[in-house]
Amino acid sequence: MTEKLRIAVAADNAGVALKDALAAMLREDHRVTEVTDFGVPDATDDRAYPLLGLAAARAVADGEADRAVLVCGTGIGMQISANKVEGIRATVAHDSYSAERSIKSNDCQVLCLGGRVIGPELAKKIVAEWLGYEFDPDSASATKLGHITAFEHDHQLPTTADAAC
Ligand SMILES: O=C[C@H](O)[C@H](O)COP(=O)(O)O
Fold first, then answer.
1. Is 72 a catalytic residue?
2. Which of 14, 34, 85, 97 is the most exposed place for a label (fewest CB within 10 A)?
3. With bands split at pLDDT 50, 70 and 90, how would you rate the model's confidence at 162?
4. Confidence (pTM)
5. What does the pLDDT read at residue 132?
6. Which residue's C-alpha comes closest to atom 8 of ligand 1?
7. Which atom of ligand 1 is nearest the CA belonging to 116?
């Protein structure tokens, strides 16, 4: 059972309509205790996506939120931005299988969506499913992710001697 989740959301003006639709859904979800909206408040705010996405990703990295949903035109700019924050694993996922594996294989805390790519009903379904997935820290995937975390800390390329896989 997934514990109660604190979700950060953010978008630029290309993603704000979808962000607001997802935030409204998340606020009604019994698995979510808190939704923190990092903006933008509406489409007249033309701040660039990194200004919003980096703040939301930092909140996750700092333990102020458990996960984040970031929306721009494609999701790509938000994904790149969020992945610059140490400890963050962010992905674009516009299909349910990728969203599921982003948790179960990759322990991603951040899901990025494109407001110009996906419709609100499919996005809501994917996000609702995504809330229910948990990473298993005892799985074989954890060893693989460990190579990424180690590189993030020491910037040394992993070798096959470092781990079984
Ligand atoms: O990845 C970037 C986003 O899609 C953004 O909303 C639009 O960026 P652009 O104006 O640089 O195309």
1. yes
2. 97
3. low
4. 0.96
5. 98
6. 73
7. 4
Q: What is the pLDDT of residues 5-63, one digit of tens each?
A: 999 999 999 999 999 999 999 999 999 999 999 999 999 999 999 999 999 999 999 99
Q: In the structure encoding, which two tokens stand for residue 109, read together?
A: 């805390």
Task: Specify the CATH number for the domain of residue 98.
Answer: 3.40.1400.10
Are 118 and 145 in a shared domain? no
Compute, in angstroms, the gap from residue 75 CA to the centroid of ligand 1: 8
Residue 162 and residue 92 share a domain:
no
Residues 28, 11: one domain?
yes
**Sheet bearing 67-72, strands edge to edge:** 32-37, 5-11, 67-72, 110-114, 90-92
